[in-house]
Amino acid sequence: MRFTFIFTLLVAAASYCRADKDVFHNDQAFDAAAYGVYPVQHYRSTDLVSPRVNVLQSSSECDSSLYTLLTPRGSSTSESTGVILDHNGNLIWTSAWGGQQIYNLLVQEYKGQSYLTFWAGNDAVGGHGAGFYYMLDKHYNLFLEIGAAGGLDGDLHDFRLTENGTALITVYQVINKDLSELGKPFVGEIWDCLIQEVNIETGELIFQWRASDHYKVSDTLRDIGGDGGIGRAFDFFHMNSIAKDLKGNYLTSSRYMHSLTYINGTDGEIIWIIGGKRNMFEDLSNGHATNFAYQHDARWSKENTEVTMFDNGVDDLHPNIADTRGLRLELDQDKMTAKVVAEYKNPHHIHGISQGSFQTLENGNSFMGYGNTAAFTEYSHNGTVLCDTHFGAESRFGAGEVQSYRVYKYSWHAWPETNPDVAIAENDDGEWTFLVSWNGATEVREWVLQGADEAESDEWVDLERILKTEFETEFEIHTSYPRYMRVLALDSTFRILGVGGLLDLTLEKVIEDSIVNSTSSGNDINHLTQAWSLPPLRIEEGDTWWLKIMLGFCTFTGLCVGLREAKVVWRTRRRFRRGSIAFQHIDPAILHA
Ligand SMILES: *[C@@H]1O[C@H](CO)[C@@H](O)[C@H](O)[C@H]1NC(C)=O
Ligand SMILES: *[C@@H]1O[C@H](CO)[C@@H](O)[C@H](O)[C@H]1NC(C)=O
Ligand SMILES: *[C@@H]1O[C@H](CO)[C@@H](O)[C@H](O)[C@H]1NC(C)=O
Ligand SMILES: *[C@@H]1O[C@H](CO)[C@@H](O)[C@H](O)[C@H]1NC(C)=O
Asked: Which of 1, 160, 457, 461 has its CA 20 to 30 A from that of 276?
């Protein structure tokens, strides 16, 4: 009996303490879908919603300076969004795109500047897409919208800027083809696949390559089934990545040929093929270097001596024939040999039936997004799992209820032209708090809450400073605080990036979005910057070690619940005694009575 009681307390303590955290850590209930197929995080200072991830494993060997970029979509998401998370899984930026589907969120360079790039459009056209490519600058303003050349639809699979300021894009087009080789007694429709290289500013077509000029329909490993008739174009090739090397040649991946094709950038002729029916390489790894299947995202690595890919190994019709792996191959293009350098296998035996990405990071690690499966994993170069995260419940993997075409890691620095979002709200302990967040702001190091007795005051006093660690930062509002409040966002050099507020506590609402424009270099900001001189805010690790031990102990024993409840009751009683509280609801105006 007593044991049951203690156990119940323990469980309650665990879930109570967990409820405070934005990110789950190795939470089995998460993977059993106890919080839903796609747990999300809500905020109080904004209506934004973001994935609430489960970090299964993390390591100091992972590149923590980079952010994670994903595009969650699927039947369990409320809408398709682009999402940037920090290394710990906290939100940095999220946005939808006019109700369209978003794919392939990357950071790419153009003329020395970094841009967020992605595809958005309609993905319900049979495994590919009809849409446009977008580039957002470091203020999240639209820099360019790019379409395919020749009046064709821009497909979702790839959009890569080259160092020459052109873009490589995938294009799908229905054409008629004699299908007798596949046992059909007629000329029928197929989805042809094109590589286009376009000038992104003029739209001029620089290079075009057509799969059907170089591959026969019978080279495919896909069963034609009932396809090929009118309105049922047969997807024989399914191009899903393009890369261009310094020699000016193209490397493309074909899901249904199970092959990569290396294409001469001058005359478009095939230089070589690896994998599939027309493989030209000798396999020095007992067949494991050339047996990839339904693969995605083929890229050059190590000065074009290595090729990496996301080897699905399976598709929707053959979901269990292999485990999905990342694959790093060493190619000798003179001897025409291929050798496995490393395989990257997820310990959760993921069967990635569609999509997926493979990225070699600058520190040598390999980073994979599992496409149809809501997971991303960072591996050391040799294939050891270093960091592993789920953004959907593992028990539902394969159902595709939440998926992200690719997941990549990049460095990203951005200064949104909005103002920080602020709100006041009661927290779980019934205390009034001031909340602030700023979608997309990457450079905020700390928030400074300031107060004044007059809205137009020249004398704002600092009330509290908090280092930003999560998307939304919470300040407790103390009874001694003045009537008006605002919050400053400071970067690591104590420059003011923006101001959130003004908040009037007696009205219990934000009376102005902001007193100054965060992005304007106008007088207000300059005035504030000049008036500002702050010592660095430091966390005194030494002072709090005993607190941490106590907290750890109370979490472990379940006393935590009791302690926290006691604190709330005590504060509430104190307010009652002072006559400053009525009923359950604490009116912030009363805090100033
Ligand atoms: C860039 O342009 C130069 C000169 O035309 C060409 O040699 C090179 O292959 C191009 N590089 C890419 C990646 O397109
Ligand atoms: C590419 O094509 C050009 C022009 O036909 C030819 O001179 C060159 O040798 C080809 N390159 C390769 C690697 O086949
Ligand atoms: C593989 O990499 C991990 C992590 O860097 C390292 O601990 C391990 O020793 C390496 N294994 C081999 C066989 O090199
Ligand atoms: C803030 O900046 C925007 C864009 O630069 C401008 O349109 C707006 O008028 C500015 N608002 C204020 C209050 O200065």
From this structure: 160
